[in-house]
Amino acid sequence: MLPNEAEVLQRLSIADIERAQSYVKDLTRGLEIIRTFPQGVTVFGSARLPQDNKYCIMARKLGNLLAQNGHAVITGGGPSIMEAASLGAYEIGGRAIGFNITLLHEQVPNPYLTECLTFEHFFARKVMLSMASKVFVFFPGGFGTFDELSDILEIMVEKKMPIMPVFLIGKSYWRNYIKMLEKAVESKLADRKSLKIITVTDDVREVVKAANKIGHPKVSENYYDGFNEAQALKKAGQTGAKG
User: Fold this and answer.
1) pLDDT at 41 over 90
2) What does pTM read for this prediction?
3) Domain count, the chain
4) Which residues of 17-51 are buried (b: 16+ CB within 10 A; e: fewer)?
5) CA-CA distance, 63 to 44, in Å (whole number)?
6) For residue 180, what are the domain limits?
7) Which tens digit of pLDDT belongs to each residue from 16-30?
């Protein structure tokens, strides 16, 4: 017999309840802001590269092209790749949305954001970066970028979210990552579907082409709303959740 809400609350400490309320606050505020614009294109990448780096230049160009085609640019709101993509959209008069995060060394939002929301919790921020997007773009980056990429690929493969285009920008940078994935697949440690989702390219116009193909969903029609996890699992030949 499942415990009722009152029984659960009796077992929780004040710290547990405050923590849960903090999670809910992050998620609720995030959901409110993503309901104000059609799903756009989320750009991930390093927070450490200078603006004259070739990948920052490419990210700025991508921001330009996306804005010209009416797509919102979503980033983590910080410097480097995130700033370049935001600038690209901002200078064209497009929408540059930043989902910032509170860190030990404060990450200051870049000055080119048309909207910005700062999160306390990484997982809530990751949910919003996913739900706000119809296309995912990964420029070279470190632990945070790899974490986001692995998370999104796993969730797509496991039918927890719709499969959407995933682009890795920078063939030379991502070459060894793809080799690692291929080795994992050969060793039956990863699903081959993850490789089929990814497109590795040096041409940011491919991203814009994919976004244009998907089109511009209405603000009220987030792709997650129509996604049915049970139906997706059934279609994939699965009968239930994995234990």
Assistant:
1) yes
2) 0.89
3) 1
4) eeeeeeeeebbeebeeebeeebbbbbbbbbbebee
5) 12
6) 38-212
7) 888 889 999 999 999
